[in-house]
Amino acid sequence: MTTRLGILSFAHMHAFSYATCLKSLPGVELVGIADDDPSRAQKMAREFETSFFGSAEALLDEGLDGVIVCAENAKHRSLVELAAPRTAHILCEKPIATTIKGAQAMIDVCAAHGAKLQIAFPVRFAPPVQQLKQTLDGGALGRIYCVKTTNRGLLPGDWFTDSALAGGGAVMDHTVHVIDLLRWFWATEVTEVYAEIGYDLLHPGLGIDDAGLLSFTLATGVYGTLDTSWSRPESYPTWGDVKIEVVGEGGTARLDAFNQTISVASDETGRTRLIGWGSDMDLGLIRDFLEMIATGRDPSITGYDGLKALEVALGAYLSAGRGQPVPLPLEDEG
Questions:
Q1: DSSP secondary structure string for all residues of 233-288
Q2: What domains appear along the chain, each with residue ranges and CATH number?
Q3: Contact indicator for 278, 260 with CB cutoff of 8 Å
Q4: Which phi and psi angles does 251 have, rounded to 5°?
Q5: What span, in angstroms and rounded, lies between the C-alpha atoms of 162 and 214?
Q6: What is the model's pTM?
């Protein structure tokens, strides 16, 4: 039986990877692409040999088994609200939304219509991350004292630097991935966050935050830090990193989620680049989404997971503005 899927917007760069994954898998049909930028959608429809739809409604009327939402962050809510009555399965790019209110509205509309909402946190499917999860579950490190984490990268440009569309800059972009991993590792929540955030610090004239350092406490008592900066120059050999160091009474563990690479020096590109050769975490995410559709189980990464990761990013902005730690959960968003 063929699983029929559509993609709503190619605004986010991950849409290209997800479409590539869909086209590589048997028993999956990419029915079409809809986007509020017709030229972008038409180009991608040709690239992936599928149909262009002039509106999200037209694509959703095709009786799809599910959709993948890859619009700008601020547009996630409207597209999920549009999709929930029309399809049973939705994979939404991170962050789930730009506000807690928006995230909760998405969760509520999906629940009201019986649609299953999964949030795209593909780093959970990286083999090094899964190995660390197994190590922690096995108790090899004993009591955990602290974690040091990073999610640094290149300046993405385009709408990522438009606060109205992105909801924030580097802190919004990169906080949620790592926080989702920590919540997953220990089935716990962040109870307090303090942040120092820089605007135009690394990229003068950018007009949005491009550097951030978060300090946080988990309900388990674990203390942690997270560097979320867009600190990598254009000449950097890869887009960025996700690294985690865990310190426990039984030892330490260090994770580099993107260490399956080969160094390639090319005159064509004018620089050395790190090219991935190993497992594809995006493919792991897509396979997990398809398994949910096939088996009828609940999402492995829920809308609530998306909301709680977003809450830490929003708490970081509040903390930086107030110059003091902010307790979580948030009573308001400012």
A1: -TTSSSSB--EEEEEETTEEEEEETT--EEEEEETTTTEEEEEE-S--HHHHHHHH
A2: 3-120 (3.40.50.720), 128-280+310-327 (3.30.360.10)
A3: yes
A4: 140, -170
A5: 22
A6: 0.94
- Number of other CB atoms surrounding residue 220 within 10 Å: 14
- How many Cβ atoms from other residues are within 10 Å of residue 57's Cβ? 12
Using the CB atoms, write b or e for 227-263: b if 16+ within 10 Å: bbbbbbeeebebebbbbbbbbbeeeebebbbbebeee
Looking up tokens 């899927």 gives 5
201-206-209 Cα angle (round to 5): 55
Tokens of 99: 């506000």
Q: What is the DSSP letter of 204?
A: T
The tokens describing 239, both together, are 């887009």
Give the integer Cα–Cα distance in Å for 100 and 110: 16
HSE, side-chain direction, 13 A CA sphere, residue 186: 22
Question: Reduced to 3 states, what is the DSSP secondary structure of residue 195?
Answer: strand
CA distances from 38 to 23, 35, 43, 270 (A): 21, 6, 8, 33
CA dihedral 244, 282, 35, 311 (to 10 degrees): -30
Q: What is the CA radius of gyration of the chain?
A: 20
In 3D space, the residue among 54, 49, 52 whose CA is nearest the CA of residue 29 turns out to be: 49
Residuewise pLDDT in 10s, the chain (334 residues): 899 999 999 999 999 999 999 999 999 999 999 999 999 999 999 999 999 999 999 999 999 999 999 999 999 999 999 999 999 999 999 999 999 999 999 999 999 999 999 999 999 999 999 999 999 999 999 999 999 999 998 999 899 999 999 999 999 999 999 999 999 999 999 999 999 999 999 999 999 999 999 999 999 999 999 999 999 888 777 777 899 999 999 999 999 988 765 677 777 776 777 666 567 899 999 999 999 999 999 999 999 999 999 999 999 999 999 999 999 999 866 5
